[in-house]
Design goal:
The chain is of the alpha+beta class and about 950 residues long. The strands form 15 sheets. The chain has a four-stranded parallel sheet with strand order 2-1-25-26, with helices on one face. Strands 6-5-9-19 form a four-stranded antiparallel sheet. The chain has a four-stranded mixed sheet with strand order 13-14-12-15. It binds one RNA strand of 85 nucleotides through α9, β11, β15, α14 and β34.
RNA sequence: GCGGAUAUGGCGUAAUUGGUAGCCGCGCUAGACUUAGGAUCUAGUGGCGAAAGCCGUAACGGUUCGAGUCCGUUUAUCCGCACCA
């Protein structure tokens, strides 16, 4: 039978739609399985071939699981809030909702053409009020909870208030709870809420007019747009994700992710163990150690400062201290003589942009404050410096500098001529003068030297001993620090979820849950307001009437009953942090998702998506889920049990070579001397086939090429790609897939040309799903040919029972394909299909009972043709309702095995032995074999190693 | 700098996990059928060699009867983090 994909594919897509073939219900006796793709942001450019790679892989797996008898949840939706739609709105005035709607329609059309088995009845869109109602709801819960370190989980803020009221805990630092005014209490509680408002240094991007999260900034530039980002102190909402740092680290042991992704997350969370130590200030007039202030250690805050170190063992090597320029004690401790210099330095450091600072990491800068601290273990006076190599955001913003064993301290000491003292050595008997060192000795190995009571100890033991001592002295403690920062949650943008927050007397209050969703208001302008407020500042109906519980005109704000609403919106990760849970029960208006739904589905069994979300979405979603777990919503600590990262698809650009002398002349790639005579120009890959340029289409491509002339290949290059005379051969290079390089491959074109099934198979055939690879259509013909050959098998269809040879092919194929799918190796699965088809193609007739099963095997990969052939075989309904075939191990048995036998690793003997023999029988066979006898020459072999089904080794 | 990974024909890749390296596909070569071929089919295709054979999985070394696979050193490429004390 002919392979007429352009007829078959629309037909079955229509059938699936009409029959609701992929509808998935929450009640089923079948075991459940949840396969999820990272939902896409619907950009204006549409899908390119990189998007469906992961979707195809997950679709194959979902279909396979269904055939295996699972109730499979396999949904799709859109991460529809985002910057591009808003930027487009600013440029054109087009409302982002309209652009987004249009893009979604285009995405849907493209996805439908590929034949995915998504249950579209469960579609979610983050910008849909029915969806973001629950994003806002979660925010309110975060606002109303704090992290109880004792119970190690989130608890209602009322629980904390209760404890404060009963006096079970006392408010630290501030006045006692009982003496606080209501507002003071609110301000105090803000320090505990999991969603909180605070003045914090943020990544401010002036070009985008908004704040960015740490993962949205790379090298001081915004990920979107590449604009400079500066540090700025702003009042922002943040999520206290740091409270979950330890659980986020621990949870990684529970999930089946790649080591590299786990490692990326561990690095991002950056757990490090060490000690916090208080260093008292030295009295400036004191000269002898015993005079130096030691008696006031209890009153830490005024006369001491706290440092964090991961190397407490090196405390005897401290020769100076360094504070970050933002440190609050600088002003207090700086001596009058140094004041001018210090102030100038601090001002300079604060004005430096993030990009400058990062670009000049190697440059050493700093200033002496004139003040001294005391090393609490040695009583030594050590100078206090200020430098921007110490960061305000990590630890305490102050360090003890051990130049001999920290490369940054070393560089600083060398630059400012500060002493360097060795306190760790690999061999304690061989010390050298650090003045001669070229670099510091940072490794945590060897022994402590010159280190008082820990001298001679191994570094590890010394660490513990020093911490014990410090704790005993009451001047510090064992501490864990995390690199992870709280997630800034405000964005000065229009196209995002509004915060369910209004301000009374400048303090935030939440909108009652019953009033959600708080709808995104209309604005006349998507840019920030003239006064620099976010775009929502333009909204005319954006105030909260507390009594009537509704949104009213902004003009009615009187701050008595009508109050201003929050003007920022939530960031992109807000909507994507819980969407996988919403899919379980997407039409529920009473709750985020029902208890029954989440108890049925539990969590995502298989999540497929790019590794680029490793430090963004995948951290936020885990945090979000853990919080929902704490408040009794989700039932699993980890949202994504198994995660597969599909590799990025790079572009493969094609080039034509334009002559330097003659703008209309293009010289083919392999013409001798071409490189010197020409300039490469990107050419649209859609008018190039297997690197051969379609000359006519090239002339039509752009007006300036209308009169192009070509110097074509001659036949001098056999073996090279079709370098026959009369062809123009293009060059190629691997680059990022982008419009400007004309290397974007649109899946629609390939579907039109080869069909969706070919596209699906080819994307899988390209290589392992996890591997990054350039897009290249050079092999797609081969895959297409396979489908044609497969259809051809049906020409020789017979009802006669299959012979042994066919059954063997069938059962081998069932085994291989099943194994391949289970280990997510779809490229080998496609290869194995080809082998099977080639083998059966050599037969005169092919039995129906064989094809019955092969069609089911093919269904996950090429669902359209599988449906068609399923009907050709006379079945009713959809192949999706078929049963995955099992293989019969007896059919895989080989008649004989070949055992190469090596003697002393040199001689080799091959014995043909019958199958199914035991080790003893195999050994006996070797001994009985005449050739083996000859080689053994009557001697007993010392050792016969028998590896089942594989080989026998004889050692004489 | 730290961390993670990868390295196999002209190309994408495979190798039952330590057992005959190169399956499958592309490309290429030759042939068949064709007015034609960018259709289809057949055969061949790691390198050197006329052949027997020798060499061959980034490089060097090790373990093993046996290494693409395990261990060590080096090199190259990709990814993540990056003054995180």
């Amino acid at each position: 039978m002919d392979y007429n994909f352009s007829e078959i594919e629309p037909k079955w897509q229509k059938y699936w739609r009409e029959q609701h073939t992929y509808r998935c219900l929450n009640n089923s006796d079948k075991p459940h399985f949840y396969v999820l793709d990272m939902f896409p942001y619907p950009s204006g450019a549409g899908l390119h071939v990189g998007h469906p790679l992961g979707y195809i892989a997950s679709d194959i797996f979902a279909r396979y699981k269904r055939l295996r008898g699972f109730n499979v949840l396999h949904p799709m939706g859109y991460d529809a809030y985002g910057l591009p739609a808003e930027q487009y709105a600013i440029q054109t005035g087009q409302h982002p909702a309209i652009t987004t709607e249009k893009n979604i329609a285009r995405y849907r059309e493209q996805l439908d053409k590929i034949g995915f088995s998504f249950d579209w009845e469960r579609e979610v869109r983050t910008c849909d009020p029915k969806y973001y109602k629950w994003t806002q709801w979660t925010f309110i819960q975060l606002f109303n909870h704090y992290y109880d370190t004792e119970m190690d989980k989130a608890m209602p803020i009322s629980h904390l208030v209760e404890k404060l009221e009963k006096g079970e805990i006392s408010a630290v630092g501030d006045k006692p709870w009982k003496e606080m005014s209501d507002e003071e209490r609110q301000d105090y509680l803000m320090n505990f809420r999991l969603a909180y408002l605070a003045d914090i240094p943020v990544n401010w991007c002036p070009e985008l007019g908004t704040v960015l999260a740490n993962d949205e900034v790379v090298n001081g530039l915004s990920v979107r747009g590449g604009y400079p980002v500066e540090r700025k102190l702003m009042r922002q909402w943040s999520l206290r994700i740091t409270a979950y740092a330890q659980r986020l680290v621990d949870g990684l042991n529970e999930v089946e992710w790649t080591d590299s992704l786990k490692e990326i997350q561990r690095n991002w969370i950056g757990r490090s163990e060490g000690a916090a130590v208080w260093f008292p200030l030295a009295k400036s007039e004191a000269t002898r150690p015993e005079e130096i202030l030691m008696g006031q250690i209890e009153t830490h805050e005024e006369t001491s400062f706290e440092i964090f170190t991961t190397r407490p063992d090196t405390i005897f090597g401290v020769t100076f201290m360094v504070l970050c320029p933002e440190h609050e004690m600088i002003e207090q401790i700086t001596t009058p003589e140094q004041r001018e210099e210090v102030e100038a330095y601090v001002a300079w450091a604060k004005n430096r942009s993030e990009r400058e600072r990062q670009a000049e990491v190697k440059k050493v800068s700093g200033v002496f404050t004139g003040a001294f601290a005391v090393n609490p273990l040695t009583g030594e006076r050590i100078p206090i410096w200020v430098s921007d190599y110490v960061l305000a955001g990590y630890g305490t913003g102050a360090i003890m500098a051990v130049p001999a064993h920290d490369s940054r301290d070393f560089a600083f000491a060398r630059h400012f001529n500060l002493p360097i003292r060795q306190v760790v050595a690999l061999d304690p008997h061989e010390l050298s003068d650090p003045a001669t060192w070229e670099e510091s000795m940072d490794a945590k190995t060897g022994y402590s030297v010159n280190s008082g009571f820990v001298t001679g100890m191994k570094v590890k033991d010394a660490m513990a001993a020093v911490i014990d001592k410090i704790e005993e002295m009451g001047i510090g403690s064992r501490t864990v620090n995390y690199r992870l920062r709280d997630a800034i949650f405000s964005r000065q943008r229009y196209w995002g979820e509004p915060f369910p927050i209004y301000y009374k007397n400048n303090r935030p209050y939440t909108i009652p849950e019953e009033c959600l969703p708080l709808l995104l208001p209309e604005v006349k302008d998507f840019k920030p307001t003239a006064t620099g407020e976010p775009p929502l500042g333009h909204a005319t109906v954006w105030a909260w009437d507390e009594q009537n519980r509704q949104v009213v005109e902004t003009s009615k704000i009187d701050n008595k009953t009508v109050f201003p609403l929050e003007l920022s919106t939530m960031p992109g990760f807000a909507g994507s942090s819980g969407y996988y849970l919403r899919y379980m029960d997407p039409r529920n208006d009473e709750a985020y998702f029902s208890k029954e739904a989440v108890e049925y589905w539990q969590n995502v069994d298989l999540y497929v998506g790019g590794a680029e979300h490793g430090t963004g979405h995948l951290i936020y979603a885990r945090f979000w889920n853990k919080f929902l777990f704490d408040i009794g919503m989700s039932v699993k600590q980890e949202p994504f049990q198994k995660l597969v990262n599909q590799g990025m698809i790079q572009g493969r650009s094609n080039f034509v070579y334009r002559s330097k002398e003659d703008n209309n002349l293009f010289i083919s790639k392999n013409i001798p001397g071409r490189a010197e005579k020409t300039v490469p120009i990107h050419v649209d890959i859609n008018i190039v086939n297997n690197d051969i340029l379609d000359i006519e289409r090239f002339r039509q491509w752009r007006p300036e090429f209308a009169n192009a002339r070509f110097e074509l290949e001659d036949q001098a290059m056999p073996g090279d790609n079709k370098a026959a005379a009369g062809r123009y051969v293009c060059g190629w290079e691997i680059e990022k897939m982008s419009k400007s390089m004309y290397n974007v491959q649109n899946p629609d074109d390939l579907v039109a040309r080869y069909g969706a099934d070919t596209l699906r198979l080819y994307e899988m055939f390209l290589g392992p799903v996890e591997q990054a690879k350039p897009w290249d259509t050079n092999g797609i013909e081969g895959v297409h040919r396979f489908l044609k050959k497969f259809c051809k098998l049906f020409d020789s269809l017979t009802d006669a029972p299959a012979d042994k040879a066919q059954l063997k092919i069938l059962h081998q194929t069932i085994k291989k394909i099943t194994d391949d799918i289970e280990r997510f190796s779809f490229n080998t699965a496609v290869s194995n299909f080809m082998i099977c088809t080639n083998d059966l193609g050599g037969m005169k007739t092919v039995s129906k009972e064989v094809l019955d099963k092969l069609v089911v095997l093919l269904a996950p990969f090429a669902p359209h043709i599988a449906e068609e052939l399923y009907h050709v075989l006379g079945h009713e309904g959809s192949v999706c309702q078929a049963e995955w075939p099992d293989y019969d191990p007896a059919m895989l048995v080989q008649d004989t095995f070949t055992y190469p036998v090596s003697f002393n690793g040199k001689m080799r003997l091959t014995l043909e032995l019958p199958n199914g023999i035991t080790q003893e029988e195999a050994v006996a066979a070797v001994k009985a074999d005449t050739l083996a006898q000859k080689w053994l020459d009557g001697k007993e072999p010392k050792r016969i190693v028998f590896v089942p089904n594989k080989i026998i080794n004889i050692v004489i």
